[in-house]
Amino acid sequence: MIDYAMYCKIHDAHHKQGLTAIQIARDLHLDRRTVARWLAQEKFRPRKAAPRPSKLDAFKGQVVRQLQSHPYTATQIFQRLRDDGYTGGISIVKQYVARVRPPRKPAFLTLVFAPGECAQVDWGQFGSIAIGNTRRRLSFFVMVLCHSRMLYVQFTPTETMEHFLDCHVNAFNYFGGTTAKTMVDNLRSAVLQRITGQAPVLNPRYKDMADHYGTQVTPCGVGQPQEKGRVENAVAYVKKNFLDGRELTSVEALNADARQWLDTVANVRIHGTTHRQPMEMFAAEKARLKPLPIRPYDVAVVRPARANSQFRVILDTNSYSVPAEHAGAAVTLGLYPAHVCIYLQNKLIARHVRSYDRHQDIEHPDHPKALLQQRRRAGEQKLLQRLLALSPRAEPFYRALAERRINPAHHVRKIVALSEIHGVEQTARAIDDALELEAFSCEYIANILEQRQRVLPEPGALHVTRRQDLLELELPEPDMAVYGGGPVTSPAQGPSATGKVQRASPGQASEQPTRMTLDFEQPSPGPSAVPTQCEPDPDTGATHEPR
């Protein structure tokens, strides 16, 4: 028998591979006439079995009438047919009854709630949304007041306990009060266990929140969504009226748009059941709501954790930093929808904005400072040890440097670097010289090293040009009144020199300087040239022999 898969193989071999019917029949082990017949058919038409006569044919009308009068079982109908002469088996009776039985439509009562009596909550899902480099399923929380059909919607990236509690708190704040009871589905955030004949075991954290707001948790029956039909219809309404065709940009943008949609569309429309606006009916129901407590409920989920050696705490594949001194410590996480708090012995040591991206590292800029400072101090100690190893006098040099400089580590780092450039011996000598000169700075050390390495040119011969005009000195006219006036005389011994001063006229004094020419005259020989007797010294009064 040729099925749809074999039909596709036959046509692929003929149209794509270009094989003939004989070639296809040989490859697929079929008769060539069968292949030719199926190639002639443009569409696959399965062979219909010819109707076979059945012993039940004469009783089929009776079976239909019985099922229309009462929902009999197939066994009951088989027994009635046997009484009427049916000789066939029960199998064909069951098959026929299953095919012709009218569909069962369950009937439900319409529940009526008083104002402020009950609210129904549920989660809805709609596709996924991009968050950073990943995508997460988009969930939304819905709460409906059963009497007025007043609606609240909040979008979240997950359906964890902290989001579930936070959505309840925000919904109660939106309505301005709480109802007497709250109907929920049997999700793990609300119900831990259902045992037949016993009261459901509520999640203790959810029950604590409900007790804080004074509302009683009422789980609906297992597999009975009709018990909270109002919120089920509200979830479908949010998908059709708000989400269909909307671009899913971010959770924050959706929540802002949803709040506007609630105030302008959802809660002011004419409801199909009440034929009134939910906002109008809520005006009367609000007075019947229980007032909110003074302090809002703390929705944080507490979870133990341990910081790793990189002083990080891992949460949902993301890493959150703690102060470096708490690396390896056992800590406690406080998980909120918007942020993460990290405690050590009931003391808050870190707080981060919660990330719903994956494999992200979130670090507070102050957390690694202690480790960096410790490593910086260790590096400075190593540099100081290298400085002290340069010279025996490096220690007094460093003490004086630390007393006179604000940042001695900077100077130590520079001096050690200079030792790598100029060598240990030259740097040690420069440190000794700087200590003698009381010059405590890396700049002084660098200057000493550079001066010693500077190459000076060798001295050359001095060439003096002797020109006649260089012997003529032009001097300004002196003021002789300062000296009391008087002629200038030369010494009596040796060649005499007579200074001849050419004075300029009064009109030329300011224009030309005085030119003085020295004339050397040889004294004439004679008795007056050499003294003939001892002459007293004018200063001491002593007499000197003539030379």
- Percent of residues in helices comes to 25-40%
Sheet having the most strands: 5 strands, mixed
CATH class of the largest domain: Alpha Beta
Strand count: 19
- End-to-end Cα distance, whole Å, is 163 Å
Mean pLDDT comes to: 82
Instruction: Give me the CATH fold name of the largest domain.
Output: Nucleotidyltransferase, domain 5
Strand content: 15-25%
Query: What structural category do the secondary elements indicate?
Result: alpha+beta
CATH architecture of the largest domain: 2-Layer Sandwich
Placed side by side, the strands forming the largest sheet appear as: 3-2-1-4-7
| Overall tally of domains | 5
Number of helices: 16
Query: In one word, what is the shape?
Result: elongated
Radius of gyration: 57 Å
Strands, helices and their partners?
Layout: H1 4-15, H2 21-28, H3 32-39, H4 60-69, H5 74-83, H6 90-100, E1 118-131, E2 134-145, E3 151-156, H7 161-175, E4 181-184, E5 191-193, E6 201-202, H8 204-213, E7 216-219, H9 229-243, H10 251-266, H11 278-285, E8 301-306, E9 312-315, E10 318-321, E11 330-335, E12 339-344, E13 347-353, E14 361-362, H12 369-388, H13 394-404, H14 408-422, H15 424-437, H16 442-453, E15 474-475, E16 496-502, E17 514-521, E18 535-536, E19 543-544
Parallel strand pairs: 1-4, 4-7, 10-14
Antiparallel strand pairs: 1-2, 2-3, 5-6, 8-11, 9-10, 11-12, 12-13, 15-17, 16-17, 18-19
Helix pairs in contact: 2-3, 5-6, 12-14, 14-15, 14-16, 15-16
